[in-house]
Amino acid sequence: MRHTKKVKLQTPLKGEKKRASSPHPEKKAHQPMGKDVAPIPQTPKGKEKAIEGNSTPNSKREGKARDEEHPIPTSFKLVAGSYEKLLYGLDGFVTLNDESKLEFHLKPIFIFPAHVSCIKAVAASPQGGKWLATGSADEIIKVWDLRRRKEIGGLMHHEGSITHLLFPSRSHLLSASEDGSLCLFRARDWAVLRALKGHKGRINSVAVHPTGKVALSVGKDRTLRMWDLMRGKGVASTKLGKEGEIVRWSVDGSKFVVQSGSTMDVYATNMDPLHAITHPSRIHDVKFCKRVDGEGEILLVAAEDRKLYVYQVPTDSATPSIVAEMIGHQNRVKAVQTLEMALPEASGRKSTTIAATVSSDGFINVYDIAAIPSSSENPSGLPKTIEPQTSYDSKGTRLTCITLADGDASSAPIAGSGKRKRDEDAEEEEGSEDDDDAYGANLAEDEEQEDNEEEEEE
């Protein structure tokens, strides 16, 4: 990637007329409708659509197996931001050594100053990892083409530091800021579809339900807010009594966690409290993840005391317990991300899930979730110590955030069942001037169009 001083988003692509810049935020705030969190909306009616996250859109490919549509990547890309404004990009892959054991590798592909202030958030689009978004204290969201390794431009919609970025689907980006607003961008032309307002002050974190229908956010105003992404408005809010720093949905969408300081409160979707966890040290990040062995879900906790803790999340009222401690850092663990990836056929395992962490010590560590023992493998119940599979040393850079994306299958060093065919030089995208404000955001249609465009590219 090559750094550029341009911050105006240049969206026109080949054969496409130049578009106007992103629209200004809506003046009217979307106010919540009630003091209690409402149930998650069910099947959308009429033209109201949800963001299609992991579900299959109604397209000509409906009925295909999921691994045929979006095969598990055989390699991965890792991108990390830092206080020093530097953006680190690494390629990750797995090989088999002479003893037929798995070896994980990280290879740096770019390092450069991406912003004029510290980088606070990074996010990569799922199912292909084409787009990368970075957010900074300079109030700008920069968009990058991760495959071509070039900057697309800057989104200057917010009037405060960017606190959180995520791609709920390949076709949409959701951002949170200290200005108290959430913005939903369409990746096709990077237009602002919605400016969601309701928080008083800084928004710390936002999470989208696996169905793509609703989002939760927490902020400085000590409230938890629910947003209807089908209609683009707030629907409910509740007072937490403390400032929520992180909110995350479970993988199956049946529960969510709100973190504050050293505490984590797990709720059901109807706001019934399920678990209250007090960790021994301050928490910096949390992430739900599926166990590789299929024994439910675990909660990864990045903490001040230099470890990544693994909590087993029970399905009943039992207290969550620490089943593993991932070591290897010499300073606070700032962030964690996970990604499922395919393994070499000769390994005897079809796939695994990796967890990648960044720390203020400047190291990026990668762990294998498969190393976490099952209940039958650990009858004593004592936490197992797990070391990283591989590490990268940034030489003292204070790393702040991390994201993982599918690697380029064409350059992956192993052959797996999830190999993709891509011709980056032939990539083209066609936009349209559809009115996305008519009914909700028409998000599912955008996802389907992106699928069709990628088929044409291949």
Automatic annotation (TrEMBL):
Classification via Gene3D superfamilies: YVTN repeat-like/Quinoprotein amine dehydrogenase (2.130.10.10)
Region feature (Disordered): 1-73, 374-393, 404-458
WD repeat copies, ranges: 112-154, 196-237
PROSITE patterns reported in the protein's UniProt record: WD_REPEATS_1, WD_REPEATS_2, WD_REPEATS_REGION
UniProt xrefs under Pfam families: WD40
Domain of life where this protein originates: Eukaryota
Keyword ATP-binding part of the UniProt annotation: no
Keyword entries, A-Z: Repeat, WD repeat
Acidic residues bias (residue ranges): 425-458
Matches recorded under SMART domains: WD40 (SM00320)
Biased composition (Basic and acidic residues): 14-29, 59-71
Protein name as annotated: WD40 repeat-like protein
Natural source organism: Cyclocybe aegerita
